[in-house]
């Protein structure tokens, strides 16, 4: 069992802690549920039901606890590690381990940068959206992928778009970002202008990709599910990137 300190929220708000628990322990802890405990059973869906502050707390907890579950042993020498600094550091118990000499990224929770981009057609009135087979029916979203070592954000955007859809990208503009604790990503949101329009989907990456006219996107977002298009929920950065493009006030 791991207990971590998440810190205080705004002034005069509770101090937050998180604990990972098996089902038996969780049942016992639920006696405290009316005292401010929260037990997400399906984290993705439950996070979308929370307000912004609570979602941030649960996201932080899930990300750090997932890191603890993977780093019980030192990546440098294989020895057991111990929890320190309220759960935000793990130190090797082998006094000879070189991870104890200096600052090493194996000792702290990791964050993996991911680019997520809304690709805009050269005519400015269409956007490129893709879908994976695991998406709900008719849902399309922004393309996304991990930043590779040595890449800039712009290079990662161009590479990922071309790999997944075959579309080439020119100018890239950073818009906003969103932590995504599934398990520990930072989603770097961008708009990108396409320099080609022919689509050739890499089916190992995504199931489909299409250009969608602005009006179809507007209809899907504000007038209920469109016959052929469902947009990700408003809590996601993909939704906000799309909203920003169509000229409606977003939360970015």
TrEMBL record:
Keywords for this protein: Hydrolase, Magnesium, Metal-binding, NAD
Pfam families the record matches: NUDIX (PF00293), Zn_ribbon_NUD (PF09297)
SUPFAM superfamilies hit by this protein: Nudix (SSF55811)
Cofactor section: Zn(2+); Mg(2+)
GO biological process: NAD+ catabolic process; NADP+ catabolic process
Keyword Iron-sulfur annotated: no
Superkingdom in the source lineage: Eukaryota
GO MF terms held by the record: metal ion binding; NADH pyrophosphatase activity
Enzyme Commission no: 3.6.1.22
Catalyzed reactions per annotation: a 5'-end NAD(+)-phospho-ribonucleoside in mRNA + H2O = a 5'-end phospho-adenosine-phospho-ribonucleoside in mRNA + beta-nicotinamide D-ribonucleotide + 2 H(+)
Enzymatic class: hydrolase
Family: Belongs to the Nudix hydrolase family. NudC subfamily.
NCBIfam families membership: PRK00241.1
Name by which UniProt lists this protein: NAD(+) diphosphatase
Native organism: Oryzias sinensis (Chinese medaka)
């Amino acid at each position: 069992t791991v207990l971590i300190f998440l810190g205080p929220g705004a002034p005069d708000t509770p101090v937050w802690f998180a604990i990972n628990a098996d089902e038996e322990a969780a049942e016992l802890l639920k006696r405290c549920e009316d005292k401010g405990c929260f037990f997400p059973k399906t984290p993705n869906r439950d996070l979308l039901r929370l307000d912004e502050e609570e979602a941030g707390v649960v996201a932080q907890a899930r990300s750090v606890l997932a890191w603890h579950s993977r780093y019980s042993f030192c990546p440098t020498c294989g020895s057991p590690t111990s929890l320190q600094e309220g759960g935000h550091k793990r130190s090797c118990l082998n006094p000879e381990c070189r991870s104890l000499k200096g600052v090493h990224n194996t000792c702290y929770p990791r964050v993996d940068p991911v680019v997520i981009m809304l690709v805009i057609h050269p005519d400015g009135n269409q956007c490129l959206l893709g879908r994976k087979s695991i998406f709900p029916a008719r849902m399309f979203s922004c393309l996304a992928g991990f930043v590779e070592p040595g890449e800039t954000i712009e290079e990662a955007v161009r590479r990922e778009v071309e790999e997944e859809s075959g579309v080439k990208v020119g100018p890239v503009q950073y818009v906003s970002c969103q932590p995504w604790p599934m398990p520990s990503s930072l989603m770097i949101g961008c708009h990108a202008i396409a320099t080609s329009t022919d689509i050739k989907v890499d089916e190992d990456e995504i199931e489909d990709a299409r250009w969608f006219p602005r009006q179809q996107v507007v209809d899907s977002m504000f007038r209920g599910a469109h016959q052929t298009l469902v947009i990700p929920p408003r809590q996601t950065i993909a939704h906000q990137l799309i909203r920003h493009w169509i000229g409606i006030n977003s939360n970015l």
